[in-house]
């Protein structure tokens, strides 16, 4: 593996870690309705668990209400049950072949708990970034040991990887701060 391959691989993997954090943060509810909140809710569909978005149309009615309309009438009950049983604390109401999902207002205590969850997710992402930095530095040390690159090249690679790490950690901090502000906004 060459220096440029190590840099490129590390960069791609760090970007994937940040993307994974964005995905995880989007699943944490903020009190405002958005269709993505039901993305990880799974519904039993002919014996297979599938995401709600594959068996129903999820739309935002207003700031505090979602509308879920299953594509098949016989799926109203299972979709409603899956939403109720999810860890989101939502209480869907069936209205014929449509399901309304009101978003309850978050209490101050629940908001603080959610900010702790957000910080934890951010810290996990930072650990992943630091592990990638360590892997890249180990690769550089191995290349020096195998006499593939010089120690100067190793030092340059370590500096560049550190800059990548700092950039991604700063991005993670920014994402966490944004999500905390979003959660704490009443």
Automatic annotation (TrEMBL):
<keyword id="KW-0648">Protein biosynthesis</keyword>
<dbReference type="GO" id="GO:0002184">
    <property type="term" value="P:cytoplasmic translational termination"/>
</dbReference>
<dbReference type="GO" id="GO:0005829">
    <property type="term" value="C:cytosol"/>
</dbReference>
<comment type="function">
    <text>Responsible for the release of ribosomes from messenger RNA at the termination of protein biosynthesis. May increase the efficiency of translation by recycling ribosomes from one round of translation to another.</text>
</comment>
<dbReference type="Pfam" id="PF01765">
    <property type="entry name" value="RRF"/>
</dbReference>
<comment type="similarity">
    <text>Belongs to the RRF family.</text>
</comment>
<protein>
    <recommendedName>
        <fullName>Ribosome-recycling factor</fullName>
    </recommendedName>
</protein>
<dbReference type="InterPro" id="IPR036191">
    <property type="entry name" value="RRF_sf"/>
</dbReference>
<dbReference type="InterPro" id="IPR023584">
    <property type="entry name" value="Ribosome_recyc_fac_dom"/>
</dbReference>
<feature type="domain" description="Ribosome recycling factor">
    <location>
        <begin position="21"/>
        <end position="184"/>
    </location>
</feature>
<dbReference type="GO" id="GO:0043023">
    <property type="term" value="F:ribosomal large subunit binding"/>
</dbReference>
<dbReference type="InterPro" id="IPR002661">
    <property type="entry name" value="Ribosome_recyc_fac"/>
</dbReference>
<keyword id="KW-0963">Cytoplasm</keyword>
């Amino acid at each position: 593996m060459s220096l440029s391959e190590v840099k490129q691989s590390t960069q791609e993997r760090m970007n994937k870690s940040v993307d994974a954090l964005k995905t995880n943060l989007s699943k944490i509810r903020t009190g405002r309705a958005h269709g993505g909140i039901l993305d990880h809710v799974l519904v039993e569909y002919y014996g297979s668990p599938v995401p709600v978005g594959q068996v129903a149309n999820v739309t935002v009615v207003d700031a505090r209400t979602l509308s879920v309309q299953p594509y098949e009438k016989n799926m109203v009950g299972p979709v409603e049950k899956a939403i109720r049983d999810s860890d989101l604390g939502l209480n869907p109401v069936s209205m014929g072949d449509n399901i309304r999902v009101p978003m309850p207002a978050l209490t101050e205590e629940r908001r603080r708990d959610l900010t702790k969850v957000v910080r934890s997710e951010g810290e996990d992402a930072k650990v992943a970034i630091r592990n990638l930095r360590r892997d890249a530095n180990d690769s550089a040390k191995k290349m020096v040991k195998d006499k593939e690159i010089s120690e100067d090249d190793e030092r340059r690679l370590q500096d560049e990887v550190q800059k990548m790490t700092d950039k991604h950690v700063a991005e993670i901090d920014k994402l966490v701060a944004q999500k905390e502000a979003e959660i704490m906004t009443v």
